[in-house]
Design goal:
The complex is a heterodimer.
Chain A lengths: L1 E6 L1 E3 L21 E3 L1 H17 L3 E8 L3 H11 L3 E6 L7 H12 L6 E5 L10 H9 L3 E11 L2 E8 L2 E8 L2 E5 L11 H7 L4 E5 L7 E7 L9 E4 L4 H10 L5
Parallel strand pairs in A: 1-4, 1-6, 4-5, 5-11, 6-10, 7-10
Antiparallel strand pairs in A: 2-3, 7-8, 8-9
Helix pairs in contact in A: 2-5, 3-4
Chain B lengths: L2 E6 L1 E2 L2 E2 L1 H17 L3 E7 L8 H5 L4 E6 L8 H12 L3 E7 L2 H13 L4 E5 L1 E5 L2 E8 L4 E8 L3 E5 L15 E4 L11 E7 L12 E5 L9 H11 L2 E5 L1 H5 L20 E5 L5 H7 L4 E6 L6 H4 L2 E4 L2 H17 L2
Parallel strand pairs in B: 1-4, 1-6, 4-5, 5-12, 6-11, 7-11, 14-15, 14-16, 16-17, 17-18
Antiparallel strand pairs in B: 2-3, 8-9, 9-10
The chains are: A alpha/beta, B alpha/beta.
């Protein structure tokens, strides 16, 4: 199957973040970056589909400055066939601008399946997938936790709050991927060597007008320092008292 | 004047709690700008008889779109209907950032070429712009985002807004879907309800979560009993536990799982790995029960008890039952 996976480069979420001097972004000094978690699942899903079929091609597309080429190479080292960088100085906060740039790249690509992670771990919006689908006029399914194909049709499952939906849809389609669907592989040494020779095209991102801006980036209000109220079952009465009188949740 | 169109979520023909939250958030926005709240609700035939709570929470008009297909969600025709209605002079189109809302909001925004603000903790109008706060970087940072344009599409995080009664006389209007659900390409073939849980993690005022400190899958019974004692609690788990198959993936709270902010979060046998904290650090009150006094969970817990969860939880369950009885 001809599959495109739209991926994003994000900092390691275990980092201790600092707000940059401009007050609207994070200070990237010393941070490690990698493929966003859900995007790694999406790459894995694409690779498994084509491995199972014994044919096909997986293209990874990443928007951003030249440093995203590292992230694209990571996906290529996992086994994707080629990469496209949609070059932009920075990734805007406007999902629709991002979707416009992706749709422009995907439009004539002849992809049967376009995958996204359900949301990126930095911006956490999840808008890019469904917006790209709309702009391309394709069916869309968000947060798939299972995905299978039979006779030109796709069958998927998505988790709701306390329930799940089973869905059926035709291809081509856009699907965003939830956790639990596949465990992303680690690139092998052979994969890493091969990735260096795989094609990586660079084109300007056609973002259009950006109408969402970050006004401020802050660390959330610090929680008051934790308090240990006691040890063992003997501390339970005091806990219940505090929940009733102080926290007022019981 | 700035009217707000609030999409009130239903499932299986019943309003969800997030529907009241959406109307409440929309009411506050409309009040700040001297506008009206129009609540749009999708449901199967008979839905119109169940929309009174939307007026009670401040909807000036309730727009009911009934169709036999809407006992399940049909995102394509619902998004088309919201987009068609959005054209009638609204400043803001407001949805819930639930699984359904997160699916619909970007579709609507793309259809009407409007900017999207996702998963807002707070929403406010600032002149012609909409300003929200939104958790980013797995909730380790909070961004203030501004969107310019009319209308703006915004989704509001479940539980971030407390429903407020602002009774209005019910004024209802009915509309037909803008596109035929039968023509939708993506079909929901089944709605699998209930993983056994009565309350969803996102809706529950109290969440009790278990981790490896419970030692075995069967000891989750203790967590369930405690949830049961509270009566308004849902059960969550850490990734370690869902990866081991003790609990389904859908119960996982954390960076790649559910993000919750209940009034009370009780972490049982959870050390507090950064990935887990990302999913629950915005909870209003946090209780931790863990053997290791040095565990990072105690740094975020308002109240911590050091000790074996297997010994402490049954005592707590009994005490909670007792406390609730005396109410």
């Amino acid at each position: 199957m001809k599959i495109a996976v739209c991926i994003k480069r994000v900092p390691d979420m275990e980092s201790r973040f600092k707000v940059a001097a401009n007050g609207t972004s994070i200070d990237e000094t010393g941070l490690k970056f990698d493929l966003s978690d859900f995007d790694a699942y999406a790459v894995e899903v694409a690779l498994q589909i084509n491995e199972k079929a014994g044919s096909g091609e997986t293209t990874v597309i990443c928007l951003g400055p030249d440093v995203v080429q590292e992230t694209i190479r990571k996906a290529l080292s996992m086994g994707a066939d080629r990469g496209v960088q949609l070059k932009a100085d920075r990734v805007p906060a406007d999902s629709l601008a991002i979707a416009r740039a992706l749709a422009a790249e995907l439009k004539d690509g002849g992809y049967e399946l376009i995958l996204f992670g359900k949301h990126s771990l930095d911006a956490m919006t999840g808008g890019g997938g469904p917006m790209t689908a709309e702009l391309l006029g394709l069916p869309c399914l968000t947060a798939a936790s299972k995905l299978e194909f039979a006779g030109g049709k796709a069958v998927a499952r998505r988790e709701l709050e306390g329930a799940a939906e089973l869905l059926e849809f035709p291809l081509p389609a856009v699907v965003t991927i939830d956790e639990g669907i596949a465990r992303p592989r680690y690139p092998s040494l052979k994969g890493i060597m091969a990735a260096k020779k795989k094609p990586l095209d660079v084109r300007p991102a056609q973002l259009g007008e950006v109408r969402v801006t970050v006004e401020k980036m802050e660390l959330p209000a610090e929680r008051p320092a934790g308090r240990i109220i006691g040890t063992g079952p003997d501390a339970v009465p005091e806990l219940v008292r505090l929940l009733q009188t102080e926290a007022k949740v019981l | 004047m700035a009217n707000v169109l609030a999409v009130a979520e239903t499932r299986g023909g019943e309003l969800r709690k997030v529907a009241l939250e959406a109307v409440t958030a929309a009411r506050a926005l409309a009040d700040s700008a001297g506008g009206e709240v129009h609540a749009l609700v999708f449901g199967p035939p008979g839905m119109a008889a169940k929309v009174e709570p939307l007026a009670q929470h401040g909807a000036d008009t309730v727009i009911v779109c009934e169709h036999a297909a809407y006992d399940k969600a049909d995102a394509e025709s619902m998004a088309a209907t919201i987009a068609a209605r959005a054209g009638s002079g609204y400043a803001v189109i407001l949805l819930s950032a639930s699984a359904q809302g997160r699916d619909l909001a970007p579709r609507v925004a793309a259809k009407i070429n409007a900017p999207l603000l996702s998963d807002a903790l707070t929403v406010a109008l600032s002149g012609a712009a909409l300003v929200v706060t939104h958790p980013t970087y797995t909730a380790k940072l909070v961004a203030t985002l501004k969107a310019t344009g009319t209308p703006v599409v915004v989704s509001v995080r479940p539980n971030a807004v407390t429903p407020v009664v602002r009774a209005k006389a019910l004024r209802a209007e009915t509309i037909a879907p803008a596109t035929d659900p039968a023509a939708s390409r993506v079909k929901v073939t089944a709605l699998v309800v209930g993983t056994g849980a009565k309350l969803d993690l996102g809706d529950a005022p109290v969440v009790i979560s278990g981790g490896r400190g419970l030692k075995a899958a069967e000891n989750f019974k203790l967590v369930e009993d405690l949830a049961d004692a509270f009566g308004n609690a849902a059960v969550g788990a850490t990734r370690a536990v869902t990866d081991d198959g003790w609990r389904p993936h859908s119960d996982q709270i954390g960076q790649t799982g559910r993000l919750v902010s209940p009034d009370l979060y009780v972490a049982v046998g959870i050390s507090g790995a950064i990935q887990h904290l990302a999913g629950m650090r915005t909870s209003k009150t946090i209780v931790a029960i863990n053997k290791d006094a040095e565990a990072p969970i105690f740094k975020v817990a308002d109240y911590g008890i050091v000790g074996d969860a297997l010994e402490i939880v049954p005592v707590l369950t009994a005490a909670v039952r007792e406390a609730r009885k005396s109410h």
